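@channel sequence for tomorrow's demo:
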Amino acid sequence: MPELALYILAAVAILLAKHAVADFYLQTPFQYLNKGVYGHPGGFVHAGIHVALTPLVYLVLLPGSLLIAGAIAAGEFLVHYHIDWLKEQATHSLTPRDRGFWYALGTDQLVHGLTYLAIVAALIATAS
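structure tokens (generated this afternoon):
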């Protein structure tokens, strides 16, 4: 397998593992109970944790410039924050017993995963 392909697969795997850690293991009630309140610090803390863990990929596996790293961090923060806020808006009156809850959660996780593909694509494009 070409070396670049291995780097890409490793980067995606690390981002997905990072997502699981930040979304499920490090997320506190302060974060998940307040992500639906636009501008609440809980949502900012949650998105910030994601951004803080992303350098595991873009500064280690696929090094780039600090300008690119900063742009990726800012973009990830804005996108992650708003994806979570929108999911909270869609599910605020739902429970896990409602089908719509699972549709929203699945869509939320899919869009986060696609964001990570975009991050890896940006790193590849700027490394060339």
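heads up for whoever presents: Residues 9-127 form one domain.
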